[in-house]
Design brief:
This protein has helices spanning 11-23, 50-54, 107-120, 144-157, 190-197, 213-225, 253-260, 269-273, 279-288, 315-333, and strands at residues 2-5, 27-32, 37-42, 59-63, 83-85, 88-90, 96-100, 124-126, 161-164, 179-182, 203-206, 231-235, 265-267, 293-297. It is built from ten helices and 14 strands.
């Protein structure tokens, strides 16, 4: 349920109303926008008399939210959220480009890639330190050493770093990480999501391989229910019957999510296609669809990559992609 407050309501009136709601046993979340204030109620609102609340002098209207996701709901928070990742903003007109290798492999590799992607316009550096792999015999990442190399690249370039967490027990190692990624396979690891909800770190939440948009939003709700509202949603393709690409990129998720939620939405065309030559066109399509950012895999030598080389761009290809995406964004802004 949300109560939209009339313009001009005093602080004392708001405090009195929120105290009343809390006495009814519901959680209260206040969203102060540029033109109106909204009080969002979380929990069992069946004991609250809507007509009585509607009749209060300071209340403009009251609406029930039928969807199970509340905090992530645009009805709860009409204005676009802007997530600030150590100075790199995403959402509300701010376009973020997260770029870097699938896996951190060496100091020389991550430093070379970091400097290259920054020069081309990347706003954040990605790199896997812990890697979930289908085969137990594949490269699993450098783990803590990988995070240290990412931090070194951050010191060299100033780029905020993004890396994936696999286990809540690893959280102490992520204290200096600027944004924590929850991968597709962990989207419904609810115990992990609860732990991340207790942090104040920005979270990049990827859609699962076979999950609906509603399920993605419910996973975001787990994090937000714990108090952490700094979430960026990532569409990275879903598994279908198609075999020409690694996954099927659901670009319709961008307008659908923007309609349902205030959270920023970025697109990962690298994992969606699995084919490097398809990444630039899908990145441009994502920008045209209104995405708030991109996540692109870039490797200085894709043929020798220890993980996902087939979908990784070279620094030169990434530079070309950034220029093309900028033109698309300029075109749709006119």
């Amino acid at each position: 349920m949300v109560a939209i407050i009339k313009h001009g309501a005093t602080k004392e009136q708001l405090n009195s109303l929120t105290a009343f709601f809390r006495e009814k046993g519901v959680g209260v979340h206040i969203v102060e926008g540029d033109y109106q204030t909204i009080i969002g109620l979380i929990g069992d609102t069946s004991r609250i008399d809507i007509e009585m609340v509607q009749g209060l002098d300071i209340v403009e209207s009251v609406k029930r939210i039928s969807e199970p996701f509340k905090c992530a709901n645009r009805k709860f928070h009409p204005d676009d959220s802007v997530v600030d990742v150590s100075g790199a903003k995403v959402g509300g007109g701010h376009f973020g480009i997260i770029a870097g290798p699938c896996s951190v492999e060496s100091e020389a590799q991550i430093l070379e890639v970091a400097k290259a992607v920054k020069a081309s316009g990347a706003t954040m550096l990605r790199g896997g330190a812990f890697k979930p792999r289908t085969s137990p015999y594949d490269f699993q990442g450098l783990k803590a050493d990988g995070i240290e190399l990412l931090l070194e690249a951050k010191r060299e370039t100033g780029l905020p770093i993004v890396t994936e967490i696999m286990n809540a027990n690893h959280l102490p190692m992520f204290e200096e990480v600027d944004m924590i990624q929850v991968g597709a396979r962990n989207m419904q690891n609810f115990e992990l999501l609860k732990e991340l909800g207790r942090t104040n770190k920005p979270i990049l939440l990827k859609r699962g391989l076979a999950n609906t948009i509603k399920e993605l939003l419910m996973s975001a709700e787990y994090i937000m229910a714990g108090g952490n509202e700094n979430i960026i949603l990532c569409e990275r393709g879903v598994r279908t019957f198609e075999t020409q690409t690694r996954n099927t990129l659901d670009l319709s998720a961008v307008p659908v999510l923007h309609e349902l939620t205030h959270l920023p939405v970025v697109i990962d065309p690298s994992h969606a296609t699995g084919v490097s030559r398809l990444v630039p066109s899908m990145a441009q399509a994502a920008a045209a669809a209104g995405a708030d950012g991109l996540m692109i895999e870039v490797h200085n030598n894709p043929k020798a990559a220890l993980c996902d080389g087939a979908q990784s761009l070279t620094p030169e290809e990434f530079d070309s992609l950034c220029r093309k995406v900028a033109k698309v964004r300029d075109a749709i802004a006119e």
